[in-house]
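Sample 1 of the test manifest.
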Amino acid sequence: MRKPNGSRLGAASCRNTTPHRPLGNLAMLGSGSGSVGASVNSQSTGRAFFWRCFTCLAQLSNPWSMDTTISVPRALTSVRARLSAAAQAAGRNPNDVQLVAVSKTHGADAVAQALAAGQFLFGENRLQEAAGKFPALLAVQPTMRLHLIGGLQTNKAKDAVRLCHVIETLDRPKLADAIYNAVQAAGRCPDLLVQVNIGDEPQKSGVAVAQADGFIRDMVGRFGASLTGLMCIPPANEAPARYFKLLASMADAHGLAVRSMGMSGDFETAIACGATHVRVGSAIFGARG
Ligand SMILES: *Cc1c(COP(=O)(O)O)cnc(C)c1O
């Protein structure tokens, strides 16, 4: 497999001055360094050369240049350790909790770094972005798995069924129809999760809590064993535990194994409440631009 080649942000700009630094550190130096990209040539004045060195050194010691890019392998190690600890604290087997690395807005190079560190489950919230990033990665690493975790338009159902291994956002009958037709055409069915609007928030997608039982029953009837579980995003400014517990109890009531819940800020709580899949983005890949 191709080795990740450092940062998109212009890590090469400092390579001349610090040739022995590992790529992970070089990646941290890149932000905002667009103007120092040219190599030092015979036409450079002493002043220009000074500025190149100064800019690189300034970034070395500037903490603000460090927070947009993190070492993906190191972050993964830390998130995995936190996941295991949370599972153990809840009396659960850490292997029963899957880590879905949410790579939205981050490039294929970031995904490749995670793959190299043994991460094989990924989540994307926009199909178009995933379609631009994942086919090439899947070609070299067919064991990786892509979860669609963002809202899906009916006219994209065909593409989603073709590309994704799990669609976590089934939330309305029209979309169920579109996925059903796409599955017939493709001859394969991804695993499907019903997204529940667990806090009944008007701006969020997902089936309303009051309608969830009926909708889940219909979807199990329609998709059978491919309907594997439920997904939710609790309200942002409230303690999430009671919402996680509500989703877990709904999954129990329908005999569904999968509960996709918990993100960077609350995945440990979600694990304590029975999450089988946590969707973690920024804690692995860094802040999104
Ligand atoms: C972006 C996103 C995540 C990951 O969020 P982080 O806070 O970066 O971990 C999880 N789930 C969904 C549906 C998302 O859109």
